[in-house]
Amino acid sequence: MSVNEKYVFYGGELEEPIEAGCRSLGELIIKRLKENGDDIAFIDGLTDERFTYADVLERSVRLANRFHRLGIKKDTVVAVMCENRIELPIVTFAVTYLRAIPILLNPAYTATELAHVLKQTQPRAVFASPLAMATLQPLLKTVPSLKLTVLFGDKKPNARVTLFRELFDRNRAQFITFTPQPVKLREQVGLMVLSSGTTGLPKAVQLTHHNVMCVMAYMREGAKMFPFEQVALGLLPFFHVYGYMVVLHSLLNQRKLVSLPKFEPTLFLSTIQKYRVTVASLAPPLLVFLAKHPLVDKYDLSSLVLLGCGAAPLSKEIEQAVLKRLPHLLTILVGYGLSESSLGVMTRSTDEHGSVGKVNKLSWVKVVDVKTGHTLGPNQVGEICIKGPLVMKGYLNNEKETRSMIDRDGWLHSGDTGYFDENENFYIVDRIKDLIKYKGFQVPPVELEAVLLTNDKIRDCAVVGLADAAAGQLPFAFVVLQPGATLTESEVQQYVAERLSKQKHLHGGVRFVHEIPRTASGKILRRELTALLGKAKL
C-alpha cells in the first residue's frame, strides 16, 4: 500500500439493489411507471396540462411499438431536440425500451454546433420542437442516416416532416404486454448527452443502462432522507444530464414534476407559488437571482423546503444570502459531478458553506498532483479524479478524447482542481484550463467572481485572463450591473483589491456588458469572453 492510499475515498454501498431485479433500464422504467399508476406525474407549468404515470407508460409503449415497425432497434440513435415538455421523456423511454439510444440535443444549438453533432452521432430519427426545427431543417439533407423527422407541433414545414401525433396507433391493446429485451447492463449504451462545450465543440457522452440505473438508485435512497410530499420544479433543461436525471427521478421514484420551458422571472416565481413547489434543482445563476432580485419578495415561496444546486460553482456568500432570504428552507443540497460521471459524485447537505460535500455512495474519489499524478493529502490542491459504476463508457467515436479523460486504471480525470479537508469535505477550486497564470501565481476566476457578486450593484460577472507579455495573464472582469445601478471600472477594481491579495486584483481591467454568455446549465462560456478581449469596447 502506498503512503497516500488512505486518501482515496469511497462513498459506500446502497441499501437496496441497483437493478431492482430488472435486466435493462427499459424494464426498470416500465416497472416503476406501473407501480406509480394513476397519480399525477407531470404538470405543464404553462398550460396546466396534467399527465399520470399511466399516461406516460401508455404513450411511451405505444410509441415503442410504432418504432419497432419503423426499424428502430438495438443501437439505433434517435435524437430529441426540444425545450422542456412531456414529449421528451415519452420519446426517450420508447427508444430505451427497444435498446436503441436516445441522444438529447440543445434546441438553442447554432447551425455549426448542430451540424457537428449530427455528423458525429448519425441519428436515424430526430424529434424537434418548432424552435429547434428552424435550425434543423436546412441541415436535414446533409445527414444521410436520417430516415424520420418528427415535429412536436401542428404545422408541417414540408411533406417530409411527420407530426408527433401521427405516430400513435388507435389500437391501445398492445401496450399492456410489452416487455423490453434484456441487455448487458454495463456495456449497452442507454443514453447519450452532449458535453457542455465550454472549451470547444460538444462531444457525445455514452452512458450505459447500468450508469443510469445507479443514479436512479442513489437518488431514490437519497429522497428518503426528506419524508415529505415532493413537488419538484422541472426548470433545468431536460437535454442536460442534470435536468434529465431530475425527470427520470421524478417519473421513476414517484415525485410530481412541474415543468417550465425556460427561465422567466415572473413565471418562475409564480409557478413555485401556484403549485406549492417543495423542491427545486437550479443552476447557480438562479441562486444569485433568489439572493439578489427585488421581485423575489413579492411572491410566497414558503412551500420551498429544499433547493439543489449543481452544474457550476456556487459561492459561499450567495448560498448564505439565499438561506437568509428564504428562512423556511431546510437546506441547499450542493452537488458536484459532470456528464461523464452520469451526474453527481459528491453532495453536501450540511452548513459547510463553500464545500461540495462528501463522496456519494457508489463512487471513489481522489485528488492528484496535476504534474506528477501522485495522490495528495488534505488541503492540497490537485485534480479531482473519479472511479466507479457512474463513470461513462466513453465518448462516441472519439477514442483519443476518451483515453485522455479515463486513464488505464479506470480513473476519470475531471479537469477540475480541488481539495479536501480533515473532515473529508471536498472543495472545488476551478477548471484547470480556466486558471489564470499571473506572475507564477494560479488565480481561480471563480474566487474573484464570488467576491464581485457580494457587491449589491453587480447582477452577474465573469473573470478571464488577459494575455500580457510581462505577467503572463492579467485577471480581467466582465460585469453586468443591476438595473439602475452605476459603478466605474476603478470602483470595481477597488472593491476586489480591498478583499483579495494582490495577485487576485483586476490588473487587466473591467468591462461592463449586458449579459454573460453561459451554457444552458449555467456554466460561463469563457472562450467567448476571451475572444471579446481582442475587440474594441462596444
Summarize this structure briefly:
By secondary structure, this protein is α/β, with parallel strands linked by helices. The chain contains 14 helices and 27 strands. The longest helix has 18 residues, at 53-70.
Classification by helices and strands: alpha/beta
Report on the biggest sheet.
9 strands, mixed
C-alpha end-to-end distance? 59 Å
The average pLDDT is 90
Folded structure, characterized:
With 538 residues, this protein is of the alpha/beta class. It has 14 helices and 27 strands. Helices cover 28% and strands 25% of the residues. A 9-stranded mixed β-sheet has the order 3-2-12-11-13-14-15-16-17, with helices on both faces. An 8-stranded mixed β-sheet has the order 8-7-6-4-5-9-10-20. It is globular and about 70 Å long.
Descriptive key words:
538 residues; nine-stranded mixed beta sheet; eight-stranded mixed beta sheet; 25% strand; alpha/beta
What order do the helices and strands come in, and which of them pair?
Layout: E1 9-10, H1 25-36, E2 40-44, E3 50-52, H2 53-70, E4 77-81, H3 87-97, E5 101-105, H4 111-121, E6 125-128, H5 130-136, E7 148-151, E8 161-163, E9 189-194, E10 204-208, H6 209-223, E11 231-234, H7 241-252, E12 256-259, H8 265-275, E13 279-282, H9 284-292, E14 306-309, H10 316-325, E15 331-338, E16 343-348, E17 358-359, E18 364-368, E19 382-387, E20 394-395, H11 399-405, E21 412-420, E22 426-431, E23 436-438, E24 441-443, H12 445-452, E25 458-468, E26 472-481, H13 489-497, E27 509-512, H14 526-533
Parallel strand pairs: 2-12, 4-5, 4-6, 5-9, 6-7, 7-8, 11-12, 11-13, 13-14, 14-15, 26-27
Antiparallel strand pairs: 1-18, 2-3, 9-10, 10-20, 15-16, 16-17, 18-19, 19-21, 21-22, 23-24, 25-26
Helix pairs in contact: 1-2, 1-3, 2-3, 6-7, 9-10
